Sequence to fold (398 residues):
Amino acid sequence: MNKVELLAPAGDLEKLKIAILYGANAVFIGGQKFSLRARASNFTLEDIKEACTFAHEHNAKIHVTCNILPHEIDSEGVREYLKSLEECGVDAIICASPLIIQEVLKTNMECHVSTQESTLNSSMIKFWQNLGVERVVLGRELDLASIKELKKNCDVDIEAFIHGGMCVSYSGRCMLSNNMTNRDANRGGCAHSCRWNYDLFINGEKINPDGDYFAMSSKDLCALPLLKEYLETGINSFKIEGRMKSLHYIATIVKSYRQAIDEYNETGDIKNIDKYIDQIAKAENRETSIGFLKGMTTINEQLYDLFHENPEQNFVGIIQDYNKETKIAAVDVRNYFDKNVKLELFSPHNPDRVFEINEILDKNGFKLEKANHPRDIVYIKCPYECEPYDMLRLVNEN
Fold:
């Protein structure tokens, strides 16, 4: 049976560690040069070295994105930067520009062709394969039948998206951001103009009610409903999009897909799919769909009304330490919560467990009415043994 890689995003070191601890086999990150997420907390070379050390200690890999399409002014220093990444221990480079591809192929790092190249047919895959690349990341505009056929007709690793944001255009090819804000999506500056609020005009007359705006964004991809069929295409790596997402989002999405994939590997089926979908709903803030996986999209895969976005505020803290004798947990506060509430303990390897608290203490042992200062450390009693990087969510009883 094909043991598919689960590839997760990370915008900083904390998110990277969370992704690996919650079940990712590999993590993709952006450095401070040649990366498409200019506003992410991109990794310094020192960060990347630490990331590689942590990942390799946990039998995981690090992929670094160098996936801009560089103009002349952006093209200097590629070879030197790649040499630095190689020295850090990076396993693979994700790239789209032939300039960067040819330089990666001179290193000992794997060369993965980015989805920015919109690879959608076997001839294009063979073109990349003949250059010597180890992996091709497919465009997000393919259905499962096409993916299965492409995989059958090539000898290179194939990576495809299973979850996260969808580009309103072919990935990275939209020019709205560049036109409206002079921020080039292909050089790391996408302003997500498709998600702005727009008024609609016909012959100079506004036809939408005041305040009822139009957007042209796509719903996020969620492949869970089709995961069994997706796994049977023979894909080598499943990619989760979202280097700008929160660590709670990353932990929740990674754990859900990890459990679903493991269930399939153990039983040949995924019978708990509804449970995994419910888990993901605790972290999602935008409606999801299956994208192109069953064919051409319809109105049901589009997000025209951004009022349907529902950001969750249930994530309240991360466990820093736990005393097994006193059952007191040290919590790094991330969102407001009161005493006398129910919390859900969310961890990489254990089932979710709910417990009540009626007391919150500060570092000096003084009682608090509430925890309302992000990044403060507070102390609560937890009946379940927990570990650093376990998370706490507020239980909504409505």
